[in-house]
Amino acid sequence: MSSHILVSFILFFLSLPLIYLFSSKFLIITNFPFISSPDSDDNYLFRRAATTNPHTTATNPKPKIAFLFLTNSNLSFAPLWEKFFSDDNNRHLFNIYIHADPTSAVADPGGVFHHRFIPSKKTYRSSPTLISASRRLLANALLDDILNQYFALVSQHCIPLFSFRFVYKYLFKDNLTSLTNFSLSNSRYQSFIEILSNEPRIYERYLARGRDVMIPEVHFHQFRVGSQFFVLTRRHAKMVVRDTRLWRKFRLPCITAEQCYPEEHYFPTLLSMEDLAGCTGFMLTRVNWTGCWDGHPHRYEPEEVSPQLIRDLRESNQSSQLYLFARKFSPECLQPLMNIADDVIFRDM
Fold first, then answer.
1. Residue in 213, 323, 202 with CA at minimum distance from that of residue 268
2. Which CATH number fits domain 62-176+186-284: 3.90.550, 2.60.40, 1.10.3470, 2.30.110?
3. Mean pLDDT over all residues of the chain?
4. pTM of the predicted protein model
């Protein structure tokens, strides 16, 4: 009898590695309605998002915009965004997802933002953690709703410059018919992401991880720079979460923090290499780099907020494009912005 017990114990301990292997692949942690993975690198989450299409029960489906909020503090401009989303006619045309630093006491702003937090991890400057957070947002939004056809990444310092109605029409233009063939995956749309190859000190940024470290996956002539905030199509969002080849390089730590801005390089480099024709090369978030310091853009203060500022921020030097969002605003700007929200910001053109 004792020999049988001994054999059972031996078999049990030998089976532990297999139990752990299969549990990590098939047992997921659910934080309804979003999906996370116990895998520390989120690999399972990304694989699911790249290969799985959720089903829709909508009888007359319309494309949606997924708004992805990347934040490490409270959403100070939640009341302004609440007003942006408030039109009842638009309530089925968007989804909201928030990646909040889990080590910060980020309050639930309530309203349309209530219960929109996804399982998240801490982010650090000069590290690939901001890329991971963005990919995590994209993956959750891909899995959550097949009707999400555009994915707009914004920060807690971003504000809208137009009404939701204007933004929706601007992105989808004349393609507002019902989506009945989801295999098309919005192939007629383009992503709005900045892709630049001739920025100052781009070579130093390329060498941030060490000489020749990026080769052979990314040669210098393929390396690009752009804003970390973008609006991607569904096919490009899937491209991002499916990628492992470039991610193996961009996830490596920098040897110097001075020129280490991986989130400004990974997305434009990947999309430039994979589908440059599918990108406009233009971003929809206006950033003022005048007087920038330590990698931070100009931060607008309350005394700068005015109707004219909003009009100026909308305008682009490209006649066919407009800016739909803007950053970076201090939290104290909320009230001055709310004062002009109805008459200026959401009055559109």
1. 202
2. 3.90.550
3. 85
4. 0.85
